[in-house]
Amino acid sequence: MKASQAWRLGIGDLQIMPAPRHRPHLKRPMWIIVLVSLVSMFLIGAYIYPSRGFAACYIFSSRGCKSFSEWLPPTPARELTDDELASHVFIKDILKMTPLQSRNPKIAFMFLTPGTLPFEKLWDMFFRGHEGRFSIYVHASREKPVHVSRYFVDRDIRSEKVVWGKISMVDAERRLLANALRDPDNQHFVLLSDSCVPLHTFDYVYNYLLDTNISFIDCFEDPGPHGSGRYSELMLPEVEKKAFRKGAQWFSMKRQHAIIVIADNLYYTKFKLYCKPGMEGRNCYADEHYLPTLFHMVDPAGIANWSVTHVDWSEGKWHPKSYRAKDVSYQLLKNITSIDQSLHVTSDERKEVQIRPCLWNGMQRPCYLFARKFYPETVDNLLQIFSNYTMK
Ligand SMILES: *[C@@H]1O[C@H](CO)[C@@H](O)[C@H](O)[C@H]1NC(C)=O
Ligand SMILES: *[C@@H]1O[C@H](CO)[C@@H](O)[C@H](O)[C@H]1NC(C)=O
Ligand SMILES: *[C@@H]1O[C@H](CO)[C@@H](O)[C@H](O)[C@H]1NC(C)=O
Ligand SMILES: *[C@@H]1O[C@H](CO)[C@@H](O)[C@H](O)[C@H]1NC(C)=O
């Protein structure tokens, strides 16, 4: 923080110095030239050696340098392993690439479900009239789904068994992404479950996801037993404890991030081997930690840190609140769509509540496009009020 202040100051000062093409007039007193060169040498020095910028901070920052330790050189950089180096180079290049420009950008809706989707009729209503702007992929891990909507017919992908909390969950997510990436028009990828319902019109969702360049991946630091407590040092050296993050599985991500996910083998393998239920007496769930940790490490500014899928944990139980038919009302849906702050609670004894505004391109906006968990019995109520609650 302080180093970057000194750094910025250095650059700014350099810029307001006389540009070289106006060569200093010889008549000018020599001491000015000497002073200017001394100052610029100092500033260049502070720029090149920001971590040693203690003197710079001492001179230029009146707010002071509270802690000397901040100015100690950072611990010497670890030498990267071959895989890590390759992975860093690859990810950096992907992130710098301008995304494939599509004349007809689409959103991929990827459903992760055990079998038949109870809300297909509702989704049918949501998609109707927007043909050509979305693609659907269904990963049914237990039984072949029966489809009632023409948009879902023939959209099942090859699936494998998924065990809750195990790496097979992440494998299914990657399988969905790989299938959806085959269509170059797919620019944004949304993961949904069988208990998810849409909260807005298609147009609203389409613009919300495509008119920004970030991915909505839930991510926060939880120092408690259900967060960093699940970390295993066997993940070293590539994944350090301080980088370990947590977040809900239900992501939406841009194309570059989707490519990174299916290409990553290094970090994926760490989580596959060392983040699993019953690991060293702890339960680690790869689907809650792999993507948040990966993107926190490789592109922290590229993710929103909240998920666009709402879920209500406020009851403080093992499972989130699940809505019954009697719970579903216009008011409930309106309540959910009006939330514009994300909330995370740590699992340590402090139970710290972290509240952040949901910033979309810098503006505070409602956080959620979808919600879970709804029991299948709610479908009729939802169908009845869908066009009402999605109205502005
Ligand atoms: C997103 O776009 C904004 C403005 O166009 C830019 O400042 C920002 O760096 C971009 N972020 C990412 C992660 O590409
Ligand atoms: C998400 O959190 C990281 C810190 O973990 C931060 O650097 C980044 O700016 C946040 N993303 C947004 C969009 O605010
Ligand atoms: C909606 O929110 C209001 C205010 O927070 C609350 O009083 C009300 O009970 C909520 N209604 C439903 C149906 O959730
Ligand atoms: C939508 O639902 C609300 C609350 O039940 C009701 O007041 C309103 O009249 C409804 N609007 C339409 C267009 O049905």
From TrEMBL:
Protein keywords: Glycoprotein, Glycosyltransferase, Membrane, Transferase, Transmembrane, Transmembrane helix
Its membrane topology: Single-pass type II membrane protein
Keyword NAD: no
TM ranges: 30-49
UniProt name for this protein: Glycosyltransferase BC10-like
An example Gene Ontology molecular-function term: glycosyltransferase activity
Stored PANTHER family: CORE-2/I-BRANCHING BETA-1,6-N-ACETYLGLUCOSAMINYLTRANSFERASE FAMILY PROTEIN-RELATED (PTHR31042), OS06G0661900 PROTEIN (PTHR31042:SF150)
Organism: Nelumbo nucifera (Sacred lotus)
Primary site of residence: membrane
Record's keyword annotation contains Membrane: yes
Gene Ontology cellular-component annotations: membrane
Localization of this protein: Membrane
Domain of life, per lineage: Eukaryota
